[in-house]
């Protein structure tokens, strides 16, 4: 054994150290959750020209799945979708109003990236409409045409 050996420059098979698979500036380098976050931000940006003042104090967030308390089960939920795509929380005390979008249920429903983008936009529109107390087609006039 050579005590003067420097830092290892190659892996044990002699092929070199592993690096990133893609440069950080290309879209493939972003994770699924980062790309989903971008879809939510795009949906919010599309609503800001008309609803910017009302949405200025609203926080938007993404969670993987809905909490167990939001998952309905039993005969009372037969007519509705048992897994929510998001929730809207009104402001209370020090907490600002918030819209939370659930990533996994939307990804499971989408068949491709374009469908996922449309589903995310619709989920954001529905939650903003709930928060503002208006119908989704008031928030986004094209909402009914896609549904």
**Count of helical regions:** 5
Mean pLDDT: 83
Q: Which overall shape is indicated by the principal axes computed on the Cα atoms?
A: elongated
Kindly name the structural category. Answer: mainly alpha
Helicity range: 40-55%
Which regions are unreliable across 5 or more consecutive residues at pLDDT < 50?
A: none
Biggest sheet strand line-up: 1-3-2
Output the helix-strand order. Answer: HEEEHHHH
Largest sheet: 3 strands, mixed
Proportion of strand residues: 5-15%
Radius of gyration in whole Å, from Cα? 22 Å
Q: How many β-strand runs?
A: 3
Kindly report how far apart the N and C termini lie.
Answer: 70 Å
Could you characterize the architecture of this molecule?
With about 150 residues, the chain is mostly helical. It is built from five helices and three strands. Strand 2 and strand 3 form a beta hairpin. Helix 1 packs parallel to helix 3 (about 115-130). The radius of gyration is 22 Å and the shape is elongated.
């Amino acid at each position: 054994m050579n005590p003067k050996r420097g830092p290892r420059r190659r892996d044990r098979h002699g092929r070199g150290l592993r690096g990133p698979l893609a440069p950080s500036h290309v879209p493939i380098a972003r994770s699924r959750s980062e790309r989903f976050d971008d879809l939510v931000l795009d949906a919010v940006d599309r609503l800001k020209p008309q609803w910017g003042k009302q949405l200025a104090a609203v926080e938007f967030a993404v969670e993987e799945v809905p909490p167990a308390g939001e998952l309905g089960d039993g005969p009372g939920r037969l007519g509705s979708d048992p897994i929510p795509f998001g929730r809207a929380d009104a402001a209370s005390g020090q907490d600002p109003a918030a819209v939370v979008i659930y990533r996994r249920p939307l990804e499971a429903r989408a068949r491709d990236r374009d469908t996922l983008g449309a589903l995310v936009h619709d989920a954001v529109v529905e939650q903003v409409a709930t928060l503002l107390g208006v119908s989704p087609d008031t928030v986004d006039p094209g909402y009914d045409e896609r549904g």
